[in-house]
Amino acid sequence: MKTRSSLLLVLARVAVLSAKSVTGAGALAAYAQVDQALAESWLITWEASVEADAAEGAARIIRQTHFTASIVVNFYDDGTSEYYANEYTGTYLVDKRWEFYCTDGSGRELYYDRIEILDPGRYQGAGPVRPNGVMPWKPTPYIGTKWILPAFNLSLGGFTIASHFEDQQCGYPLFTRDEVDTDGVDYLEYLPAYQMGGLISDDDGVFRYDLDTEVEVQDYGLRYPLRQRAHLTVERLSGRDLRVRDVEVTQGLQLHNSIPLVQGRRTIVRAYIDIGTDPGPIEGVTGRLRVYSGDALLGERMPFNMAGAISAKRSPDWQQIDDTLNFQLPWHWTLNNALRFEVEVNHTKLVDEIDYANNTRSVDLPLTDCAPLQIRYMPVLYEPPGASPASPDADIALAHEFMRKFYPVADNELFYEGWVGMACRTDIDGDEDNPALALIHSQELLEALQKLLPLSNPTNVQGLKLVAWLPENSSTWLDGQADNIPGEVAWVQQKKTSPLNIWRPLLAHELGHVYGLSHPPSVDMAWTSGYHWFDVYERSIKPGTGQGLLDFMYETPLQEPTDWARAASYQALWGAFCGGSVSQPAQPQAATDVLVVSGKVSPTTTQSGQLDPLYHASGSELIPPAGSSYYVVLKNGTTELGRYGFDKYLEPEVQGGEVYTPTIASFVLSVPYPAGLTRVDLTDRDNQVLSSRTASAHPPTVAVQFPNATGLTLDGLQTLQWTGSDPDGDALIYSVLYSVDNGATWKAMGVDVAATSYTVDFTTVPGSSSALIKVLASDGFHTTSDVSDQPFTVPGKPPVAVIVAPPAGAR
Predict the structure, then answer these.
(1) CA 769 → CA 45, 712, 750, 793, 797, distances in Å?
(2) Residues paired with residue 739 on neighbouring β-strands, in sequence order
(3) Distance from first CA to last CA of the chain, Å, rounded?
(4) Which of 622, 717, 727, 792 could cysteine-pair with 670, CB 3.0–4.6 Å?
(5) Residue 9 pLDDT exceeds 60
(6) What percent of the chain is modeled with pLDDT above 70?
(7) Rounded to two decimals, what is the model's pTM?
């Protein structure tokens, strides 16, 4: 394996190196027995990572590499030097694939190479570095209090490496090879080490080097960006000297403060303390946090650690919450555009040390005002043929509290509010009980959900997302599904017991699709890859290296303790909410004259499609991002009145080890209704007509039968009834709307009902003393509506309260 880098850095060579060193907790004591007089001690902390995830055509590249080291180097009066390692860790993954099917039908051409570290644990003692190779030259005074370090390099090793290789060419058999190397990797591609001259210290005698860059690399003809990060600190030790090594500001995910902060979001500050040459631990170490907005001091905070102090260690571990001084910011401080976080350790001077003047460190960080999340949830009365009706329980009102923990959103701007309930009479799995059929029925449900938004008014539905909750065991094959990536609607099962309690991660997962996220590679979340994961609501560390934490977008969501957000998922969501692709919500708008166009297309190479019956109604516009795969064309005869392009993408589903690729995708558009409309076409990218609907001679008629009397109170399961007819003999389809304010506003609760009745569970419907029902009837092109003659009453519902602060366990 060859090493490459476009930077003026030497790549890290990783090998098992024999070393003359002392291991374990007795290292300092052992060094004290050396005959030579100790002149100087230096502490090196090093962290480097590489990230890449790219695909194009037949090629796919994944890189996840992260290494840390904390090392003390002693220089003696006779010119010799030795070292010992406090700790070091390493994770390494390179997954490269190139695959396509042979044109002659002889099979496939495949190249697959995967290399990974099998034991990404935490190591102590000697072994990670070459003796006298860490700092081959002793730092020397430069000017005033500054020092100069002529050169630096670092080598790591001692990890168990597994390699899997497959190679198959058209017409040749498959060749595979598996190897396990306990002697370490020969080379780590793209991972920067250091060999530099003239590294000059700060005034406090600390050398620092930071790298955060993106370079373009190439494999198999695939050019892709590769993110390189590195963080190096070299500090002179001269006795017990408490200093703040690092100030980490987190809202759930962090890496050297490179993850941007969100305004109005709960924020925790963690301070990592260095203790000088003291072997440690040092008991009773405390500190304070001061936060500034510009030059104005907002206030001071004390640690929320037990007793307000910690036992400071030589090598603090981010996975141990009491290895750092921890502070929580008052919420109103986080509303500023930028803050300076200043931590001072041992401000009380109750711990003796050699220098109290170097105890403060600060970091300046911006905060971004991000778009709120506008989510509406609705319970679904699930009543497939031959089954008893069932609904999810009331806990669905609290399901968003899990996604609040790691979505980049302000504490008070995750708007998750109830919608009227709906009914689903289709068996998701179907009589054949197979995944392919379940995907088709799921698309029918998603299409119905998509139509609920534009048929409701007055609501600005741009940016509004709708999620429907089905009761547990509604489907054997599917836990939930989103309509598109990105999309508008999703449905999820309230899975509390079979097989796992995963209903809240399911909501976060499917809404992740709606906001534009795809499934990550199954290997992508084996480790933290250097990122620190912190639950700022529960004030707890999420599992770290080697403990199996998975991205919440992983193909099969797991229980909450196992799910979190990987950096790529979080940053994609941050780009959506904070970078502008999810807009700030507009004020509700008055209903407009819209045409709701829906149907199904094939998101495959071979294009096909079918238009469903149209609805002409007073509702809200819902126009997807412009696309070029399919077009809805509005016409008067042959004259074009409007054209709307859209794309569809659905992720494959994996069930029982088999991959099922959806071949049908539903779409819904709600566009302004043009005068003179007589025809609607669905065309492919080449303007070939796939399906059409033309105006018939006469509109249909519809009349609400129940509820339609004075003094009615509706609660529990109720069957709404109406009559409908069409002079042209066209088949009719209906949609049902509900109003709580005597017809001033409407919310759709059922669409595409073929029967002249509809069952509603009024225990899930907002209460009102002036409720009305409206029924829309479509003959495929024309639409007629009727409203119940008299208002009726629906019993009121209790409010839903969610405590955001203080979190569980707060003191």
Answers:
(1) 68, 10, 21, 4, 12
(2) 772
(3) 54
(4) 622
(5) no
(6) 84
(7) 0.81
**Region class of 209: left (phi > 0), else alpha (psi between -120 and 50), else beta:** beta
List residues bridging with 219 in a β-sheet: 222
Ranges of beta strands (E only) in 102-238 are 108-117, 122-123, 140-141, 147-149, 161-168, 175-181, 187-192, 199-200, 206-219, 222-237
In the sheet that holds 701-706, the strands lie side by side as 701-706, 717-725, 757-761
Report the run of H or E that residue 422 belongs to, with start and end: strand 422-424
Contacts 24+ apart (CB under 8 A), 754-757: 756/721, 756/722, 756/723, 756/724, 757/719, 757/720, 757/721, 757/722
Q: Which residues pair with 229 in a beta bridge?
A: 49, 212
**Does 584 or 733 have the greater pLDDT score?**
733
Which candidate, 448, 472, 452, places its Cα nearest to that of 393?
A: 472
CB 671 within 8 A of CB 632: yes
| Residue 112, burial from CB neighbour count under 10 angstroms (0-12, 13-18, 19+) | middle
Contacts of residue 266, Cβ cutoff 8 Å, sequence gap at least 6: 251, 328, 329, 331, 334, 411, 536, 537, 805, 807
Looking at residue 629, what DSSP letter applies?
A: S
C-beta separation of 791 from 772 below 8 A: yes
What is the residue type of 193? A
Question: What is the Rg, in whole angstroms, of the alpha carbon atoms belonging to the chain?
Answer: 32
User: Residues near 702 by Cβ (< 8 Å), separated by ≥ 6?
Assistant: 722, 723, 724, 732, 734, 775, 776, 777, 784, 785, 786
CA distance readout (Å), 151 to 233, 306, 419, 470 = 13, 42, 65, 63
Amino acid identity at 439: L
Q: Alpha-carbon distance 19 to 204, whole Å?
A: 31
Asked if the model's pLDDT at residue 127 lies above 50, the reply is no
DSSP letters spanning 390-421: B---GGGGGGGGTGGGTSS--TT-EEEEE---
Q: What are phi and psi of 508, to 5 degrees?
A: -60, -40
Q: How many residues does the chain have?
A: 811
Tell me how crowded residue 4 is: count the other CB atoms within 10 A of its CB: 11
Q: Which one-letter DSSP state was computed for residue 764?
A: G
Q: How far apart are CA 66 and CA 560, in angstroms?
A: 25
Phi, psi of 436 (to 5 degrees): -60, -45
Q: Is 79 left (phi over 0), alpha (psi -120 to 50) or beta?
A: left
- Averaged pLDDT score across all residues of the chain: 83
405-416 confidence digits (pLDDT tens): 999 999 999 999
Q: Which of 84, 75, 85, 73 shows the shortest CA–CA distance to 37?
A: 75
Pairing of strands 422-424, 373-382: parallel
pLDDT at 3: 29
Q: Who wins on pLDDT, 688 or 153? A: 688
- SS3 call for 285: strand
Mean pLDDT of 137-162: 77
Q: Which residues contact 47 (CB under 8 A, 6 or more apart)?
A: 66, 67, 68, 69, 229, 230, 231, 232, 256, 530
- Tokens describing residue 796: 């009121």
- pLDDT surpassing 60 at residue 586: no
Query: Which one has a higher pLDDT value, 665 or 413?
Result: 413
Q: Which of 62, 52, 59 has its CA nearest to residue 523?
A: 62
DSSP per-residue string spanning 439-480: HHHHHHHHHHHHHHTTTSBS---TTEEEEEEEPTTS-SS-SE
Cβ atoms of 371 and 414 closer than 8 Å: no
- DSSP line for 560-601: GGGEE--HHHHHHHHHHHHSSSSPPPPPP---EEEEEEEEEE
Look up residue 591 and give its amino acid. Answer: A
